[in-house]
TrEMBL record:
<feature type="transmembrane region" description="Helical">
    <location>
        <begin position="45"/>
        <end position="67"/>
    </location>
</feature>
<feature type="transmembrane region" description="Helical">
    <location>
        <begin position="345"/>
        <end position="363"/>
    </location>
</feature>
<keyword id="KW-0808">Transferase</keyword>
<dbReference type="InterPro" id="IPR018732">
    <property type="entry name" value="Dpy-19/Dpy-19-like"/>
</dbReference>
<feature type="transmembrane region" description="Helical">
    <location>
        <begin position="245"/>
        <end position="271"/>
    </location>
</feature>
<feature type="transmembrane region" description="Helical">
    <location>
        <begin position="157"/>
        <end position="175"/>
    </location>
</feature>
<protein>
    <submittedName>
        <fullName>Dpy-19 like C-mannosyltransferase 3</fullName>
    </submittedName>
</protein>
<feature type="transmembrane region" description="Helical">
    <location>
        <begin position="216"/>
        <end position="233"/>
    </location>
</feature>
<feature type="transmembrane region" description="Helical">
    <location>
        <begin position="291"/>
        <end position="324"/>
    </location>
</feature>
<comment type="similarity">
    <text>Belongs to the dpy-19 family.</text>
</comment>
<feature type="compositionally biased region" description="Basic residues">
    <location>
        <begin position="1"/>
        <end position="10"/>
    </location>
</feature>
<feature type="transmembrane region" description="Helical">
    <location>
        <begin position="417"/>
        <end position="441"/>
    </location>
</feature>
<keyword id="KW-1133">Transmembrane helix</keyword>
<feature type="region of interest" description="Disordered">
    <location>
        <begin position="1"/>
        <end position="36"/>
    </location>
</feature>
<dbReference type="Pfam" id="PF10034">
    <property type="entry name" value="Dpy19"/>
</dbReference>
<dbReference type="GO" id="GO:0000030">
    <property type="term" value="F:mannosyltransferase activity"/>
</dbReference>
<keyword id="KW-0328">Glycosyltransferase</keyword>
Length: 486
């Protein structure tokens, strides 16, 4: 019996040992959490490196492509210096003349004095060009050309145009980064860069109107949009948030300094932020930062332009201040049930509108401002609210760049498949944003799902701006569409 039991015990032990051996040989060992984290981190580094390299290449190739188009169109390298300057048509030649004036001045001090006391631009009048016009970029470029040891190798006109073509590389890289942030893949950024180039007719005029203010400003606006898109992401580290705020402020300031129409573009942006903030789709602290940055940048530009009163009387400053004041007056705006919140929201809109009009009228009456009346007359005439006899307003109306989008624009956008993708993405994001807004209004303090947060904040912010820019319908609206579609 003992032998039988022993034999049974041995037989019982053998199969278990074989199974254990088979499991040890055949089954893979589970990865440790540290190994998974390391592999995921290496993949992110590799993806970021490849995506960044593609962004750099896309920007540089676009810059070279636009410069080649300019060369082929004008044969720029084979014409005389006078002919090169003549190629800067209309106000483009005026802006370049200030750059040339700074270079020909005996010293920088003489150059600055000539710009501050200019008696050539307007007949029988001496004006301060640094106050009247956005020409600090020409001043900065002339100083840079004087300081850098490049006079023997590069002519002033080439330094000027190459700088602007280089900024287009920044523009494309910023669109690429924005699309990457919104989609989570750098392939979307490559698609945005591709569509920007293929729709060049509707996205840029840089190859034939190089010195225009928009060609200086829009690259920095694209950088600002990319930085805001990153800033609106949840759960940012404090260091990342501070660096992003610095990037937003710097790009906003340079954008405001280089283009006289900056306040209207940023007003559209502020309206989009206000909609998100009112619907509780944007953290109040982040909205306050963005409002404050816009106002601070404009005030700093106002100081650099010798306290240009037109900036102080802008609707953007009045609107942002009104939003901040109204928020203090209505502290319980985002509490209560659906009907209560809807009523508070309508009251909030009314308060902000009244405060904006009141502050703007008070500032203009106090400073006796009338310099921007032609812009509002132009807008009224553009949207059919009455004709105007104002010369400046009619001049804008005659300019094709400020007209309504022609119908053939949609045909060109359809030919490159951009319009189809844009309409599809706009419909999806609009639906998701509306669902997120209704969820917030019905359930105060509730958390949204992750997809709703991402689409509701970043996507809705860009969606609001694109729709409003589309209503304004300048020919440059294609540049804003490209970054949105992906």
């Amino acid at each position: 019996m003992m032998s039988i039991r022993q034999r049974k015990g041995v037989r019982a032990a053998d199969p278990s040992g074989d199974d254990a051996a088979q499991q040890e040989d055949g089954a893979p060992e589970p990865k440790l959490p540290s190994e998974r984290h390391t592999s995921r981190r290496l993949w992110k580094i590799l993806s970021f490196t490849v995506g960044g390299a593609v962004a750099l290449c896309a920007g540089l190739l676009t810059s070279v492509y636009l410069a080649t188009l300019h060369e082929n169109d004008l044969w720029f390298s084979n014409i005389k210096e006078v002919e090169r300057e003549i190629s800067f048509r209309t106000e483009c030649g005026l802006y370049y003349s200030y750059y040339k004036q700074m270079l020909q001045a005996p010293s920088l001090a003489h150059g600055f004095r000539g710009l501050m006391y200019d008696n050539k631009t307007e007949s029988m009048r001496t004006i301060n060009l640094l106050q009247r016009m956005n020409i600090y970029q020409e001043v900065f470029l002339s100083v840079l050309y004087r300081v850098l040891p490049i006079q023997k190798y590069l002519e002033p006109v080439y330094f000027y145009i190459y700088t602007l073509f280089g900024l287009q590389a920044v523009y494309v890289a910023a669109l690429y980064a924005t699309s990457w942030l919104l989609s989570g893949t750098w392939l979307a950024g490559l698609l945005a860069a591709f569509w920007y180039v293929t729709n060049r007719t509707d996205t840029t005029r840089v190859e034939f109107t190089i010195p225009l203010r928009e060609n200086w400003a829009l690259p920095f606006f694209a950088v600002q949009v990319a930085a805001i898109t990153y800033f609106l992401r949840p759960n940012l580290r404090p260091v990342s948030e501070r660096l992003t705020l610095l990037a937003i402020f710097t790009s906003t300031f340079v954008f405001s300094l280089t283009w006289q129409f900056n306040q209207f573009t940023m007003l559209v942006q502020a309206l989009g932020l206000f909609a998100l903030d009112s619907l509780d789709m944007l953290p109040a602290a982040k909205a306050t930062w963005l409002y404050s940055i816009q106002v601070t940048a404009l005030l700093l530009v106002c100081a650099l332009q010798f306290f240009n009163s037109m900036i102080l009387g802008s609707l953007l400053i009045s609107f942002n201040l009104s939003v901040l004041i109204a928020r203090k007056l209505q502290k319980n705006l985002k509490t209560g049930n659906f009907l209560h919140r809807l009523g508070k929201l309508l009251l909030h809109l009314l308060v902000v509108l009244c405060l904006t009009l009141f502050l703007n009228n008070m500032i203009k009456k106090t400073l006796n401002l009338k310099s921007d009346e032609h812009i509002f007359k132009f807008l009224k005439a553009k949207f059919g609210f009455g004709a105007t006899r104002d010369f400046d307003a009619n001049l804008y109306l005659c300019e094709e760049a400020f007209g309504l989008l022609p119908w053939d624009t949609f045909g060109r956008l359809s030919d490159t498949l951009l319009l189809h993708a844009y309409v599809l993405v706009l419909g999806v994001t609009a639906t998701m944003a509306l669902a997120a807004a209704l969820h917030h209004l019905r359930c105060a303090g509730c958390r949204l799902r992750r997809w709703a947060v991402r689409l509701g904040v970043a996507g809705s912010s860009r969606q609001n701006r694109v729709v409003l820019f589309g209503l304004m319908a300048p020919r440059q609206v294609g540049g804003f569409i490209d970054g949105k579609t992906t």
